[in-house]
Every structure is written in structure tokens, then in C-alpha cells.
Design brief:
This protein has 366 residues and is mostly helical. The chain has helices at residues 3-17, 29-35, 46-59, 68-86, 101-116, 123-137, 144-152, 158-165, 172-180, 191-201, 209-244, 297-306, 308-322, 327-334, 343-353, 356-365, and strands at residues 250-255, 260-266.
């Protein structure tokens, strides 16, 4: 018996036939091991998906020797194949499969466990596990229990924060959270998304310019501090290298140009430099070398204040786009922020939310 040939033949047959699986295709971990190499070639059966997710959730905090990451990877692949292959809409848009509330709650439970029960998975696999669980929750509606957990834990990870800010339906709970945390420093880079939740409650809301100024100055202060910290670490490394060279770990580097190994070099950890994301013009400072581009803060400040009114309009345009109000209301609101300087933003938003009326209106303005 040639097991390798049997496996590849079975896989190809299932791939070509694309059968609709029985509900009980995977009920145990042994079933999963038998079917995991072929699962993505089956048509999407919500019941099979439910049992697969339930299996991963039920076995997560047990002492059984199982591959939790493999379960999560197959959950993602099966779900992704359903969106890409089985459910193309009339305009070639991926339509997510309809999942029962039970399934959605179990998907969230797995997401939650990657943060609260992370000891059950190998540390090297933890980040991938969180990314997978995050993927399965995109555009998924939950209950107020899950919404509350997300809001209470947004500070733990950007992945959790994204699931709060990009939650797909209106939620009084999240809108109230946004109102409470509107001026928190660690949320200043997400201003438009925060505003969107206030617009859900009050479509007349307009962010004031002072809030945008406070955001701008806070980000400048934060970035300047990050650059200073980076410079200090580099200087400290130089001092350490000079004074303690003989005691430090070394590595030999291969020179591809000479085809020879260079002399041993001291192996010191290189610091990282991470700066804030900006959504407006950021002139670059090229007077000093850094691993990433850094802003010319003086020029950026001049540009920002000279274009503050436009920045306010652009921020509102994206906030309206992110909001969960219907397209008819978005159309009425977005028109108010049109000018020559905001055309590109309005064009991108029209395309993103597929608002034909706004596109036609923009055409008339040209």
C-alpha cells in the first residue's frame, strides 16, 4: 500500500468533485487529522464549520496533545475558501458565508482565549493564532457580551482595538465607549474611526479643530521622544562596544562581494524606531540617517496649520465613510465637505462604500 499515492489521489479527486460534506465530517480530533489536508476542497457546510470551531474551542484548555494552531489554520482556510470560491456575488464581491450566532460566539471565544489562555499554545505560534482568529471575526456581528469584552480590553492589543473600531454594526455600547475615550492619547491616531461612532449616534456631529490640533501636537511630542530614545540607544551601543568589546558576543559575517568571511563583529541588538501614522502631508528630514523616514517637524507644522480647515474636512469625510449609517445619509453628509482639495478623498470614499449617487454628483462638479 502506497499511502503517499493514496493521499494525493484522494486529494485531487475531492478537489475536482468539490463534494458537499456531511454534517458529521469532523466531530473529533481524529476526524480532523484524517480530513485536514482535504477540507478546503469541500463545499462550505456551515454545520461542518461549526463543529470544527467547536472542536478547537472545546479542546483548547485541555491537556490533550493536539495542534491548536493547525486547527485554527484549517478553520481560516475553510472559511476563506468559502468566501473566495463558493459565494461570489454578482459584482465579483466576496460574500461571507452566513454563520449562526453559536458559531460566531465560538469564533470569538477562540479569539479571546489567545489572550486569556495563551499558555495552551506555543509562544512562537501565539501571534499567528491571534492573527487567524482576528481574520475570522472581521465583519462578524456579536452580542453585547462580546462587545463589552472588546471595549474593556482594547488597550491590550491593536488587534482587539481594530475589532472595536471596525465593528460592522451600530452599537450603543461601542458609541458610548468612543465618547468616553475620545481624548485618550493612545487613540489619537484613530481619530476618524472614533468620530464614526459618534456620527452613528448623532449624524450632525463635527469634530472641532482644537481636537485635531491636540492630536497633531501630541503625535509630534511622541515621535520626537521616540527619535530621542532611538538616538540614546544607538549612542549607548557605541559606548558598550568601545568599553566592553572583548566580553560581548560576536558573529562572523560573510562578504558576498569578496566571497570571504569578514572578521568577527560585535552582535548588539539594534533598536527599533516606530513613528506615528499620519494622514496628511509629512515633509521628510534627510539631514540624518535613520532606518525609516522621519518628518521635518518644522515644515510639517507649517503645512498642518496652513491647511487645518482642509484636514478637518478630510477627517470628517473618512469618519462618515467608516460610520455605520446608510449610504443615503452618507451621501447627504459627504457632499458638505467637497472642495478641490478634498476631491481625492471623496473619490476614494465613494469607491470604498460603492456610493454611485456620490460619484455622479462629483462628476457634475467637475
Amino acid at each position: 500500500m502506497n499511502k503517499k499515492r493514496i493521499k494525493e489521489l484522494q486529494r485531487l479527486i475531492i478537489e475536482f468533485e468539490r463534494p458537499y460534506p456531511n454534517n458529521d465530517l469532523i466531530l473529533s480530533y481524529s476526524d480532523f487529522l484524517l480530513k485536514r489536508d482535504y477540507l478546503i476542497y469541500y463545499q462550505f457546510n456551515p454545520k461542518v464549520f461549526y463543529f470544527l470551531v467547536k472542536l478547537a474551542d472545546d479542546t483548547w484548555d485541555t491537556g490533550k496533545r493536539i495542534s491548536r494552531l493547525s486547527l485554527l489554520q484549517n478553520i481560516k482556510q475553510y472559511y476563506k475558501s468559502a468566501k473566495q470560491n463558493n459565494n461570489k456575488g454578482p459584482k465579483n464581491i466576496d460574500i461571507k458565508p452566513k454563520l449562526s450566532l453559536q458559531t460566531r460566539i465560538l469564533l470569538f471565544s477562540l479569539f479571546k482565549k489567545t489572550f486569556e489562555q495563551k499558555l495552551h499554545i506555543v509562544p512562537k505560534q501565539l501571534e499567528e493564532a491571534r492573527i487567524i482568529c482576528n481574520y475570522t471575526l472581521i465583519d462578524i456581528e456579536l452580542t453585547s457580551i462580546e462587545e463589552n469584552w472588546l471595549c474593556s480590553n482594547f488597550h491590550i492589543s491593536n488587534i482587539i482595538l481594530n475589532r472595536v473600531l471596525r465593528y460592522p454594526k451600530k452599537s450603543e455600547l461601542i458609541s458610548n465607549w468612543a465618547k468616553t475615550n475620545f481624548h485618550k492619547d493612545n487613540l489619537r491616531t484613530r481619530r476618524a474611526e472614533l468620530i464614526s461612532w459618534l456620527i452613528d449616534q448623532d449624524s450632525k456631529f463635527v469634530v472641532n479643530q482644537q481636537t485635531l490640533v491636540d492630536d497633531f501636537e501630541y503625535l509630534n511630542k511622541s515621535d520626537l521622544q521616540a527619535i530621542q530614545d532611538y538616538d540614546n540607544e544607538i549612542d549607548a551601543n557605541k559606548v558598550i562596544e568601545m568599553e566592553f568589546a572583548e566580553y560581548l558576543p560576536k558573529k562572523i559575517e560573510f562578504n558576498f562581494f569578496d566571497g570571504e568571511y569578514d572578521e568577527e563583529v560585535i552582535d548588539l541588538t539594534v533598536p527599533e524606531l516606530n513613528l506615528s501614522r499620519r494622514h496628511y502631508g509629512t515633509p521628510k528630514d534627510n539631514t540624518k540617517e535613520y532606518p525609516i523616514s522621519i518628518p521635518d517637524f518644522d515644515k510639517m507644522r507649517d503645512y498642518f496649520y496652513a491647511n487645518l480647515h482642509t484636514h478637518q474636512k478630510v477627517t470628517m469625510i473618512w469618519a462618515i465613510a467608516y460610520s455605520r449609517i446608510n449610504n443615503k445619509k452618507k451621501y447627504a453628509l459627504l457632499k458638505r465637505y467637497y472642495c478641490n482639495e478634498t476631491y481625492k478623498s471623496l473619490f476614494k470614499v465613494s469607491k470604498r462604500i460603492r456610493n454611485i449617487e456620490l460619484l455622479k454628483w462629483l462628476l457634475k462638479q467637475q
